[in-house]
Amino acid sequence: MSTLITNIAELMTQDLEHRVLKDAAVVVEGERISWIGAAADAPAADDAVDLGGRAVLPGWVDSHTHLLFAGDRTAEFEARMAGESYAAGGIAVTMNATRATSDFDLTRLALGRVDEAVSQGTTYLETKTGYGLDVEHETRSARIASTVADQVTFLGAHLVPVGQDPEEYTELVCGPMLAAVRPFVQWADVFCEEGAFTAEQSRRVLLACRDAGLGLRVHGNQLGEGPGVQLAVELDAASVDHVNYLAAGDLDALVGTWTGWDASSGTGRRGTVATCLPACDLSTRQPLAPARALLDAGVQVALASNCNPGTSYTSSMAFCVATAVLQMRLSVHEAVRAATYGGALALHKDTGNDADGERAVGSIAVGHRADLHVLSAPSATHLAYRPGMPLTYAVWRAGKQAR
Ligand SMILES: N=CN[C@@H](CCC(=O)O)C(=O)O
Ligand SMILES: [Zn+2]
Fold first, then answer.
1. Are residues 104 and 162 in the same domain?
2. Residue 394 in contact with residue 121, Cβ under 8 Å?
3. CB of 45 closer than 8 Å to CB of 4
4. Residue 339 lies in a domain
């Protein structure tokens, strides 16, 4: 079954050539894109959809979320808006509420959040554990996460539960907890920050997870200058996320990871993606991550929602893109790229085609997964020009219309 999607005013492919086509069309066949080009040259297909001059982008790739949680932290948010600072301790409030919730309800809550994200144009997403914080509840979160998200990250090292010895807890994470979650996860992450895990504890967790075959990511430099970025670089992590406070040398270290990468062919030695989380920066009143400086220096950047109940209770990638343009000084093309191709790079899903059956996401090209986001607007510029407006008109996810 093939579908011709035509009368596209602007097709922002985010492919390796950064092509933006005008008056374009796309053909979707099964779960894959089988053709793109000028609408006038489009081949016949079984079915046709006329988009009436709207813009099409790749579906958002949200590479950093925490969707496995119950409860609400409105009071903490209100206190923050009244001048309190964010501190990692709030995670314990969500841990208690999450542990007290049934499997059925935790699944329903997570699925509801995925639906919210998809209805706003997200077509591929990662989510993390990290609100269970014992073997039983981390395993349950990982298992449920594997049924609702495209990729799952083990974040047992999110916070040391109150009353536990940090060293003993770190050993638990590296040993029995890791063994129990392993069947359900692809990645491991640590919150390497004052009040959470030290560099030494974080390194121990990441090395154990790497030995178990997991890819690595780090929550780093969110609340102050710290060792997170350097640790991510040292261990060749796929991404370091937050990056609000970069010390002298952090930017250079990140740049250094990309020296073997050929951006024009998408080949070579991958570096560590800097994932910026603008909705979180605003909700915690932290300085916005220096996305402009990172891009200018040659670092690959992703934008993600960091949807979680503490620091960023939104899955709106459009809000992140608008903020990146309006306040972080990215161009619309750069911001959309970071929220699509950048997320795919961070999740190692930027390559793949018919030959290997592992379909790339985050860009529109033949053989890639048919993940398309149609805007109620003639160009992607409207995402920043009309911030906060409901601009998602239609969504195709793996070739199926999801909205
Ligand atoms: N910083 C660490 N983890 C989350 C927040 C967790 C919470 O406060 O519930 C984040 O990415 O911002
Ligand atoms: Zn996070």
1. yes
2. no
3. yes
4. no
Q: What is the pLDDT of residues 25-72, one digit of tens each?
A: 999 999 999 999 999 999 999 999 999 999 999 999 999 999 999 999
Instruction: Among 330, 349, 378, identify where a domain stops.
Output: 330
Domain contains 347: no
Q: Are residues 101 and 197 in the same domain?
A: yes
Ligand 1, atom 4, lies closest to the CA of 311
The CA 76 to ligand 1 mean position distance, Å, reads 13
ipTM of this predicted complex?
0.99
In a domain, 157, yes or no: yes
- Is 42:364 a contact under the CB 8 Å cutoff? no
> What are the distances in angstroms from CA 35 to CA 44, 59, 135?
11, 17, 47
Full residue range of the structural domain in which residue 174 is found: 60-330
- Cα separation, 274 vs 382, whole angstroms: 25
pTM of the model: 0.98
Cα(154)–Cα(143) distance, rounded to whole angstroms? 11
Q: Whose CA is nearest to atom 7 of ligand 1?
A: 310
User: What is the number of the ligand closest to the CA of 279?
Assistant: 1
Angle at 372 between CA 270 and CA 115, to 5 degrees: 95
Out of 73, 158, 307, give the residue to mutate to test ligand 1, the one with the largest number of ligand atoms within 8 Å of its CB: 158
Count of alpha carbons within 13 Å of 51, Cβ hemisphere only? 33
Higher pLDDT, 352 or 391: 391
